[in-house]
Design goal:
Length: 428
């Protein structure tokens, strides 16, 4: 472990204020009358007005910290601290600032603003990296706008081709092409994929989004693997009709069929008996959506994950079998469209070791763990050795306005991240 000059001074008060300031950039679609909870509700959809303003704030902080700024054609933005041997492959860190509707203010943002704070602390300690250190703001980590998660890191890693990316449209039919150019990201999508060997390592600071660290009184989670996410859209087609006049025996009610499918999704996940198997139907649109009309069509969005690929795919097969059974018994059609089905990623032993020695140097209580949430690290693992540093969140809550991380925990995460960056960027 590189002996970083002096103690790392992290101005955590300033960092928390920056997180609060960033949270003010929100598209504000909180449902009127939504249950009032503590915390700041943030919605920040990629290429929307709040996203643009938030990006501007982060760029300002990066420049202030002496980092250069450049963006690629899909909106990934790179803040670079040039190393003494800038010809060597860089070491990167970073995360995302987009937020799903009615989310919290720490998911992703801790990994972007915290990385800039780590660079400030390293500069303040007199450290000088041999390899350049890049803080990456990944575009569209959340699937909110285009349906697929980690759009920016998938393209950067070459997992999603520009041919497939140009087909992406949002719910209003607006294309990725028009939206990215309107947001100021021109250039060729084909140039987003980085050249092999561009990065010597990547480490992401992120909130745990689960209860383990808090429950065990640990300050840092040393991530060893990231679960395999799969998502798909389903369309259930029945027969619409008058809610009063259509007799029950002849009905082919799409919503009742969909309800059975949603139940089957939960049962298939529970049936594995493994706590790492999770499945969710997070979106359900009913057509025509009138109280006195029998639903003719339902669109469902499905999210199934597991740290073990075979087990996840077994759950998907069980769900498909249930769909076929419901379809024939209820005489409805169930159509499926894949959005993504990714393999899990393992973190690299050398990065895990660097995180653990940084925890020792900082005297923090840490434990190894898997991540069932996906992150941009899942795709950076396709092009370089990766690791993640988790900090605990209150009650394990995330993707909700009452998501919270204490200042001291954020500060510990930033100090550990800084030490890992110092270590990785000093290696030849
Ligand atoms: O869904 C996820 O795991 C991440 O928060 N986008
Ligand atoms: Mn998220
Ligand atoms: Mn996240």
């Amino acid at each position: 472990m590189v002996s970083v000059l002096g103690r790392l001074e992290v101005d955590s008060r300033r960092l928390v204020m920056e997180l609060v300031r960033l949270a003010m950039f929100s598209d504000g679609v909180e449902e009127a009358g939504a249950e009032a909870v503590d915390g700041v509700a943030v919605t920040r959809v990629v290429f929307g007005p709040a996203d643009g303003a938030a990006r501007g704030m982060v760029e300002e902080l990066a420049r202030e910290a002496g980092l250069s700024v450049r963006s690629d054609a899909v909106g990934n933005t790179f803040f670079c601290w040039e190393g003494t041997e800038a010809g060597l492959a860089a070491v990167a860190t970073g995360s995302h600032i987009d937020a799903i509707p009615n989310a919290g203010m720490y998911d992703g943002t801790v990994g972007v603003l915290g990385a800039i704070a780590a660079v400030r602390a390293l500069k303040g300690s007199g450290f000088q990296p041999r390899r350049s250190i890049e803080v990456i703001l990944f575009t569209s980590e959340e699937p909110t706008r285009f349906g697929i998660g980690c759009l920016g890191s998938r393209m950067l890693a070459g997992v999603l081709s520009s041919w497939d990316a140009v087909k992406l449209r949002d719910q209003d039919g607006l294309s990725l092409e028009e939206l990215r150019v309107e947001a100021g990201f021109a250039g060729e999508l084909g140039e987003v994929q980085v050249k092999p060997g561009s990065y010597a390592g990547f480490v992401e600071l992120h909130i745990e989004q689960g209860p383990v660290l808090e429950r065990e009184g640990r300050q840092i989670g040393v991530v060893t693997a990231i679960a395999a996410p799969a998502s798909l859209r389903m369309r259930v087609e029945g027969e619409g009709g008058h809610a009063g006049a259509m007799l029950m025996p002849v009905r082919r009610d799409a919503l009742v069929a969909a309800a059975e499918i949603i139940q089957a999704v939960e049962s298939a996940a529970l049936a594995t008996g493994a706590q790492d198997t999770v499945a969710t139907v997070g979106m359900c649109d009913v057509f025509p959506g009138a109280v006195n009309s029998v639903p003719s069509r339902v669109e469902l969005s499905l999210d199934v994950r597991d740290i073990e690929l075979e087990r996840r795919d077994g759950v998907l097969q069980a769900i498909f079998a249930a769909c076929d059974e419901v379809a024939s018994r209820r005489r409805v059609k169930v159509k499926r469209e894949w959005v993504n089905a990714d393999a899990p990623s393992g973190c690299a032993p050398e990065v895990i070791a660097a995180v653990e020695s940084a925890c020792t140097a900082e005297g923090v209580r840490a434990r190894r763990m898997v991540s069932r949430a996906y992150h941009d690290t899942l795709f950076m693992a396709r092009i370089c050795p990766v690791g993640m540093v988790f900090v605990p969140c209150l009650g394990g809550v995330s993707h909700r306005p009452d998501e919270f991380v204490a200042e001291a925990e954020i500060a510990a995460g930033v100090r550990v991240l800084a030490r890992v960056l110092a270590e990785l960027s000093s290696r030849v």
